[in-house]
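Side project, low priority. Logging it here so it doesn't get lost.
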Amino acid sequence: MSSPERASAALESAHQTGSAPTPSDVEVWLARLGLTPLDRADREDVTAWDLELDGRRRFGLPVTVILDPGLGLICWAHYAPPIGDGFRRSYRKLLRWNDELPFVKFSIAEDGRPVLASELPIDRVDEDALGLALTRMVGVADQLLEESAAWLWIGGKAPADYGRQTPRNRQLLERFGPRLAELNGS
């Protein structure tokens, strides 16, 4: 049995017995999802990985994956720079999106940046759930690109050089995108 097969068997066994995933498990999942973390931080029992993900239209979304084995896995993205317009209008937009979009939530960080998050309970965390959560986040960022433009770019217009032809994490999008009917108009 090869190393990836052994790792997969160990993960499946841990999932069946209900044991919490470890940071090593998450790193195996990220690798199999074709994602390379930019950084990793460990503090007490919590581990976090920084990623930069592309959607099909929105590129460079900074996402942090946080594993707390006693709680769950949180995928957390700084959705946009601090909001500088009328807060009332922005808060209404975030609340509307929270109501309209399942499985993700928007909030405001202490520094005023909108945050997009997806939380997975520890007993449901596996490679599939992580892949779906990350794909859902970039899918939401794609879907809301025009409505977010004023937060993302001065004058609400993308720079002329914005957008690559092929997302860096195309493998992730191709694997999980078709399963997200709520973002595909299905």
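Brief comment: The CA atoms of residues 150 and 156 lie 4 Å apart.
Revisit when time allows.
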